[in-house]
Amino acid sequence: MTLDASKIPKSCVPLLPLAELWGVGDDFERENAVSNASKEALQHLVDAIQQMPDDQLFEWLAGPESQSPAPSPEYLAFTCLTMAYDSARLKLKQ
Fold first, then answer.
1. Which DSSP state fits 79?
2. How much is the pTM?
3. Assign residue 8 a region: left if phi > 0, alpha if psi is -120 to 50, beta otherwise?
4. pLDDT value of position 54
5. Measured between alpha carbons, how far is 39 from 68 in angstroms, rounded to an integer?
6. pLDDT of res. 55
7. pLDDT at 6
8. Of 67, 77, 61, 62, nearest to 5 (Cα)?
9. Sign of the CA dihedral 32, 16, 85, 43?
């Protein structure tokens, strides 16, 4: 999936490759990808999200587009990225 950097906050652009990789809309496919990923790949995902300044990613995701009946593909991919992030954190704790 190719996402448009102009449709996301500038502070989130460094996460674009991760959103393209992990922003899978299907829950089963996303969880399967997390389950099959290496520890290093999961750690990279977790570290990248945690390094975002002042929770700017989560502020964007909780903003006006969260109420849109037709959110952009970019918004959806980043939302799914955060779901992969949550799953990766849990897997790394095991």
1. H
2. 0.93
3. beta
4. 73
5. 35
6. 81
7. 96
8. 77
9. positive
Give me 27's structure tokens: 């829950």
Question: What is the Cβ-side half-sphere exposure of residue 72, based on CA atoms within 13 angstroms?
Answer: 15
How far is the first Cα of the chain from the last one, in angstroms, to the nearest whole number?
30
Domain extents in the chain? 14-93
For the stretch 67-80, pLDDT in tens is 999 999 999 999 99
Give me the DSSP letters along 5-71.
GGGS-GGGGGGHHHHHHH--SSHHHHHHHHHHS-HHHHHHHHHHHHTSGGGHHHHHHTSGGGG-SS-
Q: How far apart are CA 81 and CA 25, in angstroms?
A: 9
The pLDDT of residue 56 is: 87
The list of the chain residues with pLDDT below 70 reads: none
Residue 70, token pair as written in the block: 């037709």
